[in-house]
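> forwarded from #structure-qc
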């Protein structure tokens, strides 16, 4: 059986990428404190490092929706993005 995977991309004020690594790490700590596992991807763009904060990958859409509900109930925003 081939399961589709749904990573939950964490956003604040409709932004997905951050230029400040320390702020990204603070966001990760805050998200983890509400029980959602997440990580940071570092991306080099135009001679600048950008940081994408996102959750771990969910095996189904229902799991991703439940995680998004937890985030929204704790004043975070996010989108579910198919990988």
């Amino acid at each position: 059986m081939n399961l589709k995977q749904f990573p939950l991309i964490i956003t604040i004020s409709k932004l997905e990428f951050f230029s400040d690594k320390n702020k990204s790490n603070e966001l990760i700590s805050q998200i983890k404190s509400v029980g959602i596992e997440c990580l940071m991807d570092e991306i080099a763009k135009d001679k600048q490092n950008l940081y994408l904060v996102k959750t771990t990958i969910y095996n189904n859409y229902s799991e991703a929706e439940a995680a998004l509900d937890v985030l929204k109930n704790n004043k975070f925003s996010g989108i579910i993005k198919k990988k």
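QC bot note: The first strand starts at residue 6 and ends at 11. Strands lie at 6-11, 17-18, 38-45, 48-58, 77-80.
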